[in-house]
Amino acid sequence: MSVDLLFGNTSQGISLFLAILAIPGYWLIFKKCGLKPWTALIPIFNDLQLGRCAHCEDDGRKLLVSTGFYSLFYMMCCIPEVLSSSLGILLSICMFITQIFVFIFNLRIYAGLCQVFGQKKIWIVAWILMSGVSSLVWGIVSDFQPSSPAVTPSTAPAAVEVPVEKLEKGLTINLKSRTVLKYMHRKYLLKDIHINIKPGSMVLLLGGSGSGKSTFINAITGYEKANAEMLLNSRSIYHDYREVKYDIGLAPQADMMREHDTVYKTVLDAADMRMPKGTKAAERKKRTEEVLDFIGLGATKENMVSMLSGGQKKRLSIAMELVSNPYLLVLDEPDSGLDGVIAREIMLKLRELADQGHIVIVITHTPDRVRDLFDSTIILARDSDRTGRLAFYGTITGALRYFKKKSMEQILLTINPKKEGGEGRSDEFIEKYDKKRIEGKAYNG
Question: What pLDDT, on the 0 to 100 scale, is given for residue 81?
Fold first, then answer.
């Protein structure tokens, strides 16, 4: 889809001809730029691909959306009943506005193409007036060559798949990848994470912004499937989720509870939802009482949620997950917004839970004030391809020694990108830990 279609209203036949004429040109240009040539056959999407060739991918996305809306408005205006109504006037205005946006984004992309291919800017005019002819010239003539490919070659460490052995008891994670498809381009969110976590472990999940911590916990709890084998006590979290889900608890960062319910009713309602079907009412009530006493809310069970302090609400959020007695409990910043004393009290309760044989995984942005409570740490880092990778898994003491730092926060600064105030050494430590895994010297739970 090009500007010819937008301004060639005098003859739809000519516009269609020019659009078809552009396809072989796009095919050859995409091939020169290292993209899949067949994507030239996909209307509108080839705008995005041309933007990638011009190193203007963001403009390409905006052009794709703008052209899509224009096409939608145009088709609606083709309906006689709509065109003759007040809605037709509104749609005509919308078409005019989107035409302006399409023109601007095309202009930027054509300017980018001239720069990448080393051509004079007069070609921008040729592209605007005759994009089909221009694309053919640029695709066929050998002198028109891009100075760099559309997709920058990866400089990130290559993935090294070293699966861990399956535990009879505990959590086995063999995650090959977690991807999403965006604008027909597959993006890796996580890659190559293989670890074992034994029963009775309290694990710190550490990583900077964008390292994939939330994606990781969603993958191991079964909320979002990855290309992975996730086993909890030898049972597949993915394939046997209906049975395993009662053994998994996930306490999100945001408190999700009704302010006008009592503490007791809040946990009892959670018991109705989280405990296995067929659980007797008396058993749910008994378990609710036990959890409230354990978490330190027994004395406030008749209070309204709205009357609780921040620390008490955090305890209540944890209690809602504990009521099903999960074997694996994952918590996203259970200490956020709390002072040091209250935060430590909550972490001590989690430590007590781990000592009872549970697996507890915690994300916290203040790891150093409670690091003595953890058995081990999973450290995720974003490589140069912006993919979450495993930079370290081992004890807290081992992590400090491995990164040669005195605190966990200093470790974060080491692996964070330079533009975020870090040292930008994530690739270095990902590669270093991969070598340890290959040599069989990596920590294995």
Answer: 72
